[in-house]
Amino acid sequence: MNKCRIERILPSYNKIIVKIVKMLKVGKPVIFYLLLKLPKVNFWKVFYTLQSGCRIIYQAKALGNAKDRLNLTNSWECWIRYCFYKVLYIYIYYIASINDFKKDCNNIFESNLPIEVILNRLKKLINKYNQKRNFNNKFLRFIRNYIHNKCWLWATKKHKKLGKNKIYDLYFKKNKGTNNFSTLNFNDLNCHCNFNFPLAKPNLKFINVDKNYELINEALTNLGSGIYLIWLLEDPSKCYIGSAMNLKRRFNTHYKSYKNNKHPKFYSCVNKYSWSNFGFQIIEVIDNNEVLLNREQYWLDILFHCPFYSKNTLNLSQFSNSWKGNKHTLQSKNLMSLAKKGKILTEEHRKNISNGKLGEKHHYYGKKRTLETIQKMSEGARLQWKRLKSQGTVYKRNPMSDLTKLKKSKSIVLLDIKLNEIQRFNSTTLAMKELKIGHIKLNSMLDKNILLENKYYLKSFKN
Question: Which interval of the chain is the signal sequence (predicted)?
């Protein structure tokens, strides 16, 4: 829970807050969340302005804006009394419902009943509290954990000689065809939401990603770009929204690259629950790629403004940022090149790369060059080289033009340890003259990433 503070409290208001804290034996954060349910509180701002002129604010997101503060009125004392009784009523109702639930749950397990009867009664109890829409996610999580603990205590008392692993296999493991506690349906036992994400087409919703992997690929073959949703079956508030120009390719990258944990929040959740506990759905199919990011932003706004989804969403950013049209800086290029240098590909890896480009997989498979292109290629080869018969088979190059010299020449950049550019040389010859090193040493420093005078890196770029 985020810390909060109460600012600009008048003396009489402060006394009432202290009374509430002493009576209910709760802290200010609990009162803060209870006050959010009351009228005359602004839900859509980062800070929450009360009618008395006081502001209850998240400590991490405290903002001040004089325009949004409400003026102090004469009726603030009446409103504080109303708040006090309303908070007291909500809290007593909350405590009473917890006590009622505990009594109902304890009565089920106290009597020596068979497991079939216990399961039926527990399912009725879950449905009973699932229909009550006044509770938040915290209370519903408490119900789920309390039932699980009671089930575990009942099983350990019944089988005192069995170990924990065997008890788990008997009553809690998800075995098909068995009658145990894993059949309890906690999927609907979550904070209720008035909004559900739509389907682009009726056959584009899949409950088990691992089981329906081939069906998802078949369904996505004919689709181009669009917006997709991935959610956890046990807790639908844990969901991820994304857009892709190629939905099939994006789905396969998500499915295969979760072990790399490049997306820390989303992939760590997949590693914890596995793909069998996730669902996949296409929200919208979009033909125009220019509108794709705008539509993704539309759905992200809905996601982050809905209280049900905003707390547990797996999206890190509220904005639909795309790398399209952006370029890496020189420093990031140097970091990427340094990370890849020195890594030698194995023979198996090389064979896999060559096999991936053989036959039909090659980009030029089935294509033929025209006579014009063949003639141009032969003329270029003749002009480039001349054969001299005087000294055996020696090849002499025609003098290159200034344009080709610029294209083929490489500029050498001198970098410090933090990869900041110090000096740039337009050619290798200039770099050798200035740095006073030979050609062999320069190549070895470029290839093996050796420091010059234990201070500088050298990097080559095409002009």
Answer: none
Is the CA virtual torsion 406, 410, 415, 419 positive or negative? positive
As a whole number of angstroms, the distance between CA 357 and CA 376 comes to 26
H or E element in which residue 309 lies: helix 307-310
Residue 251: its pLDDT value, please?
92
What is the separation of C-alpha 455 from the centre of its chain, rounded to a whole number of angstroms?
A: 39
Taking the C-alpha atoms of residue 11 and residue 13, their distance in angstroms, rounded to an integer, is: 5
- CATH class label, 403-462: mainly alpha
Q: Average pLDDT for residues 101-129, to the nearest whole number?
A: 78
Written as one letter, the residue type at 95 is: I
| 325-339 burial code (b ≥16 CB/10 A, e <16) | eeeeeeeeebeeeee
Res 309: pLDDT: 76
Contact status, residue 284 vs residue 227, Cβ threshold 8 Å:
yes
- Tell me if domain 202-305 and domain 403-462 are identical in fold: no
Question: Which residue ranges make up each domain of the chain?
Answer: 107-183, 202-305, 403-462
Reported as a single tens digit per residue, the pLDDT across 37-49 is 444 433 333 333 3
- Class assignment of domain 202-305? alpha beta
**CA distance linking residue 337 with residue 155, whole number of Å:** 58
Predicted TM-score of the model (pTM): 0.41
Amino acid present at 314: L
Report the C-alpha dihedral over residues 370, 371, 376, 379, rounded to 10 degrees: 150
